[in-house]
Amino acid sequence: MLLVYIDHFGGKPPVAAWEALGAGSLFVTGSDLKAVVMGSGVEALAGEAIAHGAHSVLLADDDRLKEFRPEVYADGLSQIIRQSGADIVLFPTTSRARELAALVAVDLDTGITPDAIQLVRQNGAIVATRPIYAGKLLTTEVNLARRPQLLTVRGRSFPAPDSDPTRSGEIARIELGLAQPRTEVLGYKQSGGGVSLSDAAIIVSGGRGVANNPALHPPPELTNEKEQEIWRAREGFKLVGELAGVLGAAVGASRAAVDAGYIPYAHQVGQTGKVVSPDLYIACGISGAIQHLAGMRTAKTIVAINKDADAPIFKLARFGVVGDLHQILPALTSALRQRLGK
Predict the structure, then answer these.
(1) Which of 60, 141, 184, 236 is most deeply packed, by most CB within 10 A?
(2) Per DSSP, what are the bridge partners of residue 206?
(3) Is the CB of residue 236 less than 8 Å from the CB of residue 326?
């Protein structure tokens, strides 16, 4: 049996949850594709899982699961997996689900294959292909020694099934014997905004180069060089944001730009930020450090804009523009606005 864990925040799932369900649908016949929904007041989400292709849903609807606390969710999900007898469990590669999958693997004394981008079933096991060495190589792995197999599915590697509200399936409620929580959730703080990096089909990212516009003159009250640099960078990121707005894209950034204080961490793409796989990735003023490439090299089409013709990003890009992004981005935004009628 194959289970797919449906990640969500407050009953709202990311697209990656349905992509994981779509990946699971490739390997089952009959009524073997089961979704797991955990939370409080999430019966509607169980119905959504049926509409997106699950044959049935194991629903743990409990007030103790209202907030995502990893130790509580891991305890509950481990119980569900044992009770169901599942031999394969898929998770979307979100921050919550990755943490949860790791804890469940420890509870069940099994292994975990992270960040799968291709899945093939052979002799009853799932063979997964995933990037390694900062995305420079692909490896094929299968867990033969332990069951169940736990795998996380990288976002945008599999298509999300269309929702069909007419589909029907069984929703089975599960009662769990949960341990007393060891943590307390005090509240939530919104970070970022706009289009989600994880779900975006198009991403426009900026690097340290957004600050390199000597034609911009900071306000006279900014006398500190660092303050002037950050002011120039934020003006540069406005150009990145304007292009992203025309394309309906998310705004990303390199670690160098985040570390320099140009933009919040929520926008960081790379090995220590978000790993993304958009249809189109536009890198503006990003040199192409290996840590950044590890987070976006699986994008279907990469466009690089950089005034350094020898920047490593051009080796990965399908299309490259050598020039000053502060001149190129406004012209590109204007042309696209006309072309798209915006």
Answers:
(1) 236
(2) 253, 284
(3) yes
Q: How many CA atoms lie within 13 A of 177 on its CB side?
A: 2
Q: Is the peptide bond before 148 cis (omega within 30 degrees of 0)?
A: yes
Residue corresponding to tokens 């994880």: 198
Q: Which domains does the chain have, with CATH numbers?
A: 2-173 (3.40.50.620), 202-340 (3.40.50.1220)
pTM (two decimals): 0.82
Residue 114's nearest CA partner among 305, 100, 336, 319 is 100
3-state SS, 14-35, equals CHHHHHHHHHHHHHCCCCCEEE
Dihedral (Cα; 272, 278, 283, 286), 10-degree rounding: 20
Instruction: Compute the residue count for the chain.
Output: 342
Segment 134-171, tens digit of pLDDT: 777 889 998 888 899 999 999 888 999 999 999 999 99
Instruction: Residue 124: count other Cβ atoms within 10 Å of its Cβ.
Output: 9
Q: Is 266 exposed, middle or buried (0-12, 13-18, 19+ CB in 10 A)?
A: middle
Burial class (CB in 10 A: 0-12, 13-18, 19+), 165: exposed
Residue 212, judged by CB atoms within 10 A of its CB (0-12, 13-18, 19+), counts as middle
Determine contact, residues 155/198, Cβ cutoff 8 Å: yes
Distance CA 214, CA 203 (A): 26
Considering only CA atoms, which of 243, 231, 233 is closest in space to residue 282? Answer: 243
Tokens for 157, please give them.
């590697």
What residues pair up with 252 in beta bridges, in sequence order?
Answer: 205
Who contacts 190 (Cβ-Cβ below 8 Å, separation ≥6)?
Answer: none
Instruction: Select from 134, 129, 103 the least CA-distant residue to 114.
Output: 129
Question: 57-71, 173-187, 244-258 — which is least confidently predicted?
Answer: 173-187
Please, which residues bridge with residue 280 across strands?
A: 202, 301
Outline where the chain has alpha helix (H): 15-24, 43-51, 70-84, 95-108, 225-247, 255-259, 290-296, 313-316, 325-340
